[in-house]
Every structure is written in structure tokens, then in C-alpha cells.
Amino acid sequence: MSLRRAIFWIHLAVGVAAAVVILMLAVTGVILTYEAQLNQWALRDYRADPPSAVVAPLGLDDLIARVPGGTPDGLVTSAALHRDPREPAVVGLDDGATVYVDRFTGERLGNGDTRTRRFLQSVMYWHRWFALDGEYRIIGRTVVAIANLGFLFLLVSGIYLWWPSTRSRAAWKHGLWFRPRLRGRARDYNWHKVIGFWSAVPLVVIVFSGATISYQWAADLVHRVAGDTPPFQQSPRPPQSDVLETPSVTPDPATSSPATPGVFARELGSIRGRSAFVELQALAAKAGAETPGWRTLTIDLPESIHDPVVVTVDRGTGRQPSKREDLLFDRATGELVGRAGYPTFTRGFKIRRWLRFVHTGEVYGVVGQTIAGVVSLGVAVLVWTGLAMSWRRFFGRAGPPAQAPRRRT
């Protein structure tokens, strides 16, 4: 058996075995294409109209003070402000709850738990672990991760099998363009080759990024290729004085912001009562001045009043890591004492953050999301045509034998 034929049979076997899971990933991926925009649309009723053109939004400190359960009890842990004051502030509480608050009145609008959000969240659970619960979730996650690796092999081996054995123009044309007059197996084969070729590059990136999310060895591979030491092989965490300029090892910055303290203080009430501390609104204004093109500011309240206030400045959509930065301000003087976040990451961590959001295409905005959605739809067609050709190969009826043309006498 030739190498090409051996790879073909392995390609076919892996494709048939993983077809159902890959189809599920493709369909759910299509549904989640514009997840962020759909969630934003679902919160359209939270958008406020200012009472008049001259009315300014509440200051951050006053806004937090009006949130039930906030000061002086100290349950507020963070607050996110959009550049457009008509968008609600997003206030985080220490029990994990999220509250949307009107910027002009301080009115509590809701927790954002809309039908759209619940539906998209359920689709995401299917995408990640077949929406299984309890001890079965790890099984679902494992099956999805293995199928994802199988799909990566299908993409690489598919390009090898697709590559024309001859350099003729006709051979390349048949592998690059649709042929609308074909029917049956010939049509499926043509669609399979053409869609596979044109979607191969974005799919390899999407599938490999999924592997770095599922497997630690894949994430470590990124660090090694980038010339970094994998996070779990690094030296112990440096002292707090060094953390201001160095990304933390735990939690992993590929999934969370390393500069943001994990547990925040409950001392906002006492801070507001002491004139020695700069108000949060002033710190937010300084952070905005440091980055004039900001779109969202997220202020995190640290665990101790002696720790710096971390203001995350986002110049993008919230899913573009290179446009995010953490600014650390001294609470007593209001001075900028450090920078953290993406600009301070090592090359390996930067690549992993990029891979996290290139998986959904969101790192490139609507254009990237659209490309990811289109190629996900193409994957569904690849699965269908692949199964159809496999069925015909093993169970299709053989056609009548071809008859030799009669010779004229």
C-alpha cells in the first residue's frame, strides 16, 4: 500500500469516527458567530437616554454608593464604564453577581440574564462538553478535545490528499473551483475538495487554538516555540513589588488578567470617608487620559486599601488582547505606579491570548467573526459530503457495467 493510500484510509476512518462531534462543533460554532453582538442587542433596553443634554452622568463613587448592597457594606468588587454614558455601568459584587446600573440615575437595571444570553450560553455548553453536567462533564470535554485533535489531522492530511499529482492547469482548476453541473458522488467530491482547500488555513488556526485551550501540552508547545518557559515550569511567583511589571503565573493569563487581584476589598465605604484617598472617579479620569482612544474602563477594588487600584483600559471590543492594558494607581496620591497586562506579557503569553480570541474570530472584529462563521458552515458541508462519499463507497449500489460502443461496419 502506497503512503498516499494509507493516509487516505486513515483520513476516512478518523473522519467517520469523529463526524458527529465535528458536526456538532460546526453547527454550534455557526450559532455563536455573533454571540457578543447578540448579547449586546439583548441588553438594548438597558441603554439610557440622558434627562437632558446638560445632565452629566454620576461620578463613579456616587454610582457605586447607590448600588444596593454596595457601600457601606462593601460588596462591590469592580465597575466597568463604557465611553458612551448611555451604556449602563457593569458593577461586580463579591458573590459573583453582576448588576447593570444606569449611569445618570444609579438605578439598578437588572443582571443581564436575558433569554438570548441563556440560549447562547446553552449552545456554548454544547460546544464545549455536550452540555453534560456533574461528573459527566469531563467526559464530554474529553470527547470534544479528542475530536478536535482528529479534525486537525483531517485538515493536514486533507491538504496532502487534495494536492494534485500533476501540474496540469485542469487538475488545479478542478480542485479550486466549484463545478455546478456535477451530480452525486462527483459533486460531493468536488465540494469536499474546494471547501476544504479555501477554508484550510483559518480552520487550522481555529482548531489548533482550540487544542491550546483543551490541552496543557499544546499551550506549553506555544511557549516553547516562542522561546518562553512554559508557565508550570517557571520559578515561583516573584515578590509583590515585582508583580507590578511582571505577569503572574497563576492564574493563567491566557484565560484571565494576571494583573487583576483575584479577591477584591470590601472597604470602599471607609475609603470614601478618608480624604487621604483619591476618589475612584479621578483615577478613572487619569486612566482615560493615559489612553485617549479608550472604549471601556474597568476599575477593580483591591483586597487592601494599601494596594494599588487596577484600571483596565480597553481600546477594542473587549476581545482584542493587544488593545487592553492594566494601569496601577496609588490610592493615596493618584499617581500611576505601574503597568501590566498584555504589553508586559512574554511572547508566548501574547500568542496564547491571541489564539484564545482568534478561535472565535473576535480578535479581528466583525470581519474575523464572519470568517469564522463561514468556515464553520463549510465544516458542516465537509462532514456531510465526507459521510456521503463514505456511504457510497461501502454501501452504494454498483451501477450497470459499461458497454463497449458498437463498431460501425
Strand runs, count: 8
How is the largest sheet built, in terms of strand order?
4-3-2-1-5-6-7-8
Radius of gyration: 27 Å
| Distance between the amino and carboxyl termini | 45 Å
Shape: elongated
Strand % is 5-15%
Number of helices: 14
The assembly state of the depicted protein chains is single chain
Structural class of the helices, strands and pairings?
alpha+beta
Identify low-pLDDT runs: 70-74, 235-275, 399-404
Q: What's the mean pLDDT score?
A: 85
What is the element layout, followed by pairings?
Layout: H1 3-31, H2 35-42, H3 60-65, E1 76-82, E2 89-93, E3 98-101, E4 108-110, H4 115-129, H5 137-162, H6 169-176, H7 184-198, H8 200-214, H9 216-226, H10 240-243, H11 268-272, H12 280-290, E5 296-300, E6 309-314, E7 324-329, E8 336-340, H13 347-358, H14 365-395
Antiparallel strand pairs: 1-2, 1-5, 2-3, 3-4, 5-6, 6-7, 7-8
Helix pairs in contact: 1-4, 1-5, 1-14, 2-4, 5-8, 7-14, 8-9, 8-13, 9-13
Could you please describe the fold and organization of this structure?
With 409 residues, the protein is of the alpha+beta class. 48% of the residues lie in helices and 10% in strands. It is built from 14 helices and 8 strands. It has helices at 3-31, 35-42, 60-65, 115-129, 137-162, 169-176, 184-198, 200-214, 216-226, 240-243, 268-272, 280-290, 347-358, 365-395; strands spanning 76-82, 89-93, 98-101, 108-110, 296-300, 309-314, 324-329, 336-340. A hairpin with a 6-residue loop joins strand 3 (98-101) and strand 4. The two termini are 45 Å apart.
